[in-house]
Each structure stands twice: as structure tokens, then as C-alpha cells.
Amino acid sequence: MALALDGHVADPAPHLVTAVLLHDAPEYAPNNIDLDALLTARFGSSVAATVRALEHAFHTTVAPHLPPSMAGDLPRFVVRAE
Question: What are the residue boundaries of the structural domains of the chain, listed by start?
């Protein structure tokens, strides 16, 4: 995903590159942490907001088109697709 960003944005802001690198964090973060608080504390609120926006975009544009057999396997599907 970071390479795709580089191909579309000439000089991406550091927070955008960081968010793109962390775009799968919501899928892999343990349930017992506050991911938004963690991302905000470590990387800033713009990174946390962008990570959540990327998550929302995935779940509204890609996930509805997955075969039912992959519905419960989103993290592995995302890794294979990239």
C-alpha cells in the first residue's frame, strides 16, 4: 500500500505514510487495547484518524464483495491481496 501511495502522491506527508504503513492495525490489534489512544499517543491524532478512515474505506468498498467463505478471514485476505 505504501508503494501505491508513492505512485499517486508526489510528496506524501509523514503522517500519511505512517498511517498507510499502519493501515492493518485495526485488524491485528489485541482487543484489550485502546487502539485509537495508542496510535494518537505514539503517532498523533492525524495518523489515528487516517488509519480509521482507511479501515472504514476497506469495510465499505472491499469487504462487501468478498466471497462468503472469506467473510471471517479478513486479515489473511488483506495480506494475500497486497
Answer: 2-81
